[in-house]
Structure formats: C-alpha cells, structure tokens
Design brief:
Number of strands: 13
Mean pLDDT: 87
GO molecular function: allantoinase activity; dihydroorotase activity; metal ion binding
Family: Belongs to the metallo-dependent hydrolases superfamily. DHOase family. Class I DHOase subfamily.
Order of helices and strands: EEEEEEHEHEHEHEHHHEHEHHHEHHH
Domain Dihydroorotase catalytic: 49-120
Distance between the termini: 16 Å
Radius of gyration: 21 Å
Oligomer: single chain
Strand order of the largest sheet: 6-7-8-9-10-11-12-13
EC number: 3.5.2.3
Helix content: 25-40%
Strand content: 15-25%
Number of domains: 2
Function: Catalyzes the reversible cyclization of carbamoyl aspartate to dihydroorotate.
CATH superfamily of the largest domain: Metal-dependent hydrolases
Length: 379
C-alpha cells in the first residue's frame, strides 16, 4: 500500500475528539496532526464532516475454526470484522477440539496466520485436567486464559473447588471467567420442565439462567481473585446486581475488570416475544432494568470493555425448540460489528467517550505479542 493522506477528519482517539489530518504510509499510521503539509501522498482524501475512529478491539469471539469452519472461519469472520471496523480480535478456546493443549493453540495460530486479515490473539482454555499446562504457560503466547465457572458449551466446566483455588493462585496471565452457577441453572430448568415439559418457551431462558445464578458465580470469582491477587476479567455481565462487585475507577488502577456485550446492551426480556431463540445466549438477556443499568455503568468506570461474543450458528440451529437451539445471539456479520460506528454517529455526547474507550482500549497488555500485525490501526 502506498501513502494516503486523510484531511479534515473528525478524529476520536484517547479521550479526545478533534479535527485533523492523518497520514498512512505502507499500511502504517505515521503521523496525526491538526494539519499535515509537505507530504507527497499518492492518495489524498478530504474527510470533512466525517468521523475517523480508531480500529476497534473485540476481546471475545468464538470463530468456528477448527471444528465447524463452514459456520465461520478465520477467513470469513476476520473479513467481516474488518468490514465492521474491528481490526483486532481475541478468539475463545471452546472450539473442536478445545484449545486445552499447546498443540491445539499452535494449530489455531497456524490457521489464523494463513487466513486472517485482522490482528489476532488466542485465549487458552482451562479444564479440570490441564491445570499443570495452564500454570506453565508462557504469558506471551496467549491473550489470556479462559475458565468456564458455569456450564455453557464445549464441555469445559471447571467445578472442582480445589482446581479453582489453584487456578486463581497460579495462572500466569490474565484470567477470563464465564460466571454462572450450574447447580442453580439445573434446578431452575427442572422446575420449568415440570411446568412446560419439553415445550419450554424461549422467554423462560432468563428464568433458568437467572440473575442469582450469575451473581453467585461472579461474586465467587471476584472473591477468589481478591484473595489470590489474580488479574481477573469477568466476561459478559448481564445483571445490575453484578455491577456492585466492580470498582468505579480508571482501568489502569484495576486488577479486576469486567466486560459487557452488545446483545446485553441492546435487548431485554421483552424481546423474547418477537425474537425467541434468536436472542438465546449464555448468560441470558435479562430485564429492562438490567439492560439500563449496564448502559449507565459504561458512562462511569465499572465496565471496562464492550465485546461481541460473536459466535456464528446456522439459521436452522436457531429454529430448533428452546432446549435444543444453540445458545448464542446470531447477529449476522459484519452487522454485528458495524453497529458501533453507525450508532456512534447517532449517539448523544455522554455516550460517545465511554463507547469508544471500551472498544479501543484493551485491558490485555500482553495481547499484542500474539497478533499478526503490530501498530496503530484505524477504521
């Protein structure tokens, strides 16, 4: 790529919004200034009246490579991400096979190196059987380590208290936690089955995977992290009650951070009536009060990251009866990611700053060691 000079754009970066110019040379941003003169750029673009946003980081995606690349491979999903303004993604370990070994991690890196057009990193998985491997990980080889403290998909539930204690004490890098209390979920589902049999409606999902199940697990994770000094990142908060577990202070001062996902900001339990299993996801989309509390928490510093939790499924899988329908929102790519720049332009001023910071300032300082290309990227 030759040089490109973008003039008169409205740039949003590092807490500031200002009019200026941006120079790209051979695919790298080399200069940002109020006015750039004396550069013989091959291409010059007048962006007056348009926003120029930093390339966004998605800390949680579930691409289906390996295992089911027909649903979403590194080739297809990285291109969808870039089309929506995401220039870096971090892929979760519950693929087939799960990323529980160094060999599986190396295979993913090989696949992404061949196919991905975006920067990438990988989270390593934890099971009840691979803690020695996790404890010996080179922190520079992974974006983070993912633990399922509640059963979701991929048979990676870690429910042995002794394993959890060791994990929080010995994990060598940032620990990401999916927090739902499985015994509570199972009891709730049995109660609903007594009422509905096999015909449980999608609207029952937040009653089965309810706020209590989330808080029980999240509070346990936060307690473990505080006792062991673990660098913890709790994924996809879905309830107002959980917000009290996290501190309202700048990211740089935290050891425990939290993510919120697109679907928990957009939908609430009234939407099951029209969308049914299309918004079935784990943890469940809950009440309007929960949704509004999550939105408000972004204005402060209790929530640190917005992720997509993008996990492609087929339309047929989402049309199955509730108990068999795949548990992830099925927002089509790249619409899943392009929602952000589109709605940023329509957002009130109080929303813009936290939205951009939550999408472009990653709490994963180690992640850049795993990506294909290092350097500033903008969309």
């Amino acid at each position: 790529m030759s040089s490109v000079l973008i003039r008169n754009a409205r740039l949003v970066n590092e807490g500031r919004e200002f009019e200026g110019d941006l120079l790209v040379d051979h695919g790298r941003i080399v200069k940002i200034a109020a006015s750039i003169e004396g550069e013989n750029a091959v291409t010059e673009i007048d962006a007056k009246g348009q926003l120029l946003l930093p390339g966004m980081i998605d800390d949680q995606v579930h691409f289906r490579d390996p295992g089911a690349p027909d649903k979403g491979s590194f080739y297809t999903e990285s291109r969808a991400a870039v089309a929506g303004g995401i220039t870096s993604f971090m892929d979760m370990p519950n693929t087939r096979p799960a990323t529980l070994t160094l060999a599986a991690l190396a295979d993913k890196k090989r696949r992404a190196a061949i196919s991905s057009v975006a920067n990438y990193g990988f989270h390593f998985g934890v099971s009840n059987d691979n803690l020695d491997t996790v404890a010996a990980l080179d922190p520079c080889s992974v974006a983070g380590v993912k633990v399922f403290m509640g059963a979701s998909t991929g048979n990676m539930l870690v429910d042995d208290p002794r394993i959890l204690e060791r994990l929080f004490a010995e994990v060598p890098t940032i620990l990401l936690a999916h927090c739902e209390h499985t015994p509570s979920i199972q009891a709730n589902e049995r109660n609903l089955q007594e009422l509905f049999g096999e015909a449980i409606p999608a609207a029952a999902h937040p009653l089965i995977r309810n706020a209590e199940a989330c808080f029980h697990s999240s509070s346990m994770a936060v307690d473990l992290a505080r006792r062991h000094g673990t660098r913890l990142h709790v994924l996809h908060l879905s309830t107002a009650r959980e917000l009290a577990l996290f501190e309202d202070k700048p990211l740089a001062e935290k050891r425990i951070t939290a993510e919120v996902c697109l679907h928990h900001l957009l939908f609430d339990d009234r939407d099951y009536t029209s969308l049914g299993n299309l918004i079935k996801c784990n943890p469940a989309i809950k009440t309007q009060a929960d949704r509004d509390a999550l939105r408000q928490a972004l204005v402060g510093n209790r929530l640190d990251v917005i992720g997509s939790d993008h996990a492609p499924h087929t339309w047929a899988e989402k049309q199955l009866p509730y108990r068999h329908a795949c548990p992830w929102c099925n927002t089509p790519s790249p619409r899943c990611w392009s929602w952000w720049p589109i709605n940023f332009c329509r957002s009130p001023p109080w929303w813009k700053k936290p939205a951009i910071e939550s999408l472009t300032c990653s709490p994963f300082p180690i992640a850049v060691t795993c990506v294909k290309a290092i350097g500033p990227t903008w969309c």
